[in-house]
Amino acid sequence: MASVVLLFFLNVSITTSPKQYGCFKEAVAKYGIPKKVRTDQGMENLDIARYMLDNGYGMITGKSVHNQRVERMWRDVYEGVLSYFHDFFFYMEEESILDHLDERHIYALHFVFLSNINHKLDTWNEAWANHRLRTVHSTP
């Protein structure tokens, strides 16, 4: 059976290489080194790619739209976690409570909700990591 583990979610206002790499190293300490890693082609993933290749493991880069499992996973993340926050924030905009163009509002949103969103994503990730994968004709 194929095995896919979502190593981490990084939900921050600015994604940087040190943040990505730090989360990756925490995941490696928890799960071990994966045989291969799939990321987009962002420069923030360079340290992860270097680590994987220097240690003789695989690195796949590209858009997730070419990977049905990844696309399905993102749909599940949205439905299981993010839709609640999306709908709530949209409601706040409709009621003129939130102005997404105002940096102070965005800062306040991050301050109030970011840790809760991260907690919900971590909880979802733990549950997702324990589900069985369906494969085509039972092949990896």
TrEMBL record:
SUPFAM superfamilies, per the entry: Ribonuclease H-like
Keywords: Signal
Residue stretches making up the Integrase core domain: 16-138
Keyword Transcription appears in the UniProt entry: no
GO molecular function: nucleic acid binding
Signal peptide: 1-15
InterPro entries found in the cross-reference section: Integrase_dom_put, RNaseH-like_sf, RNaseH_sf
Pfam family, one: rva_4
Gene3D superfamilies recorded: Ribonuclease H-like superfamily/Ribonuclease H
Keyword Signal: yes
Protein name per UniProt: Integrase core domain-containing protein
Organism, scientific name: Dreissena polymorpha (Zebra mussel)
Lineage: Eukaryota, Metazoa, Spiralia, Lophotrochozoa, Mollusca
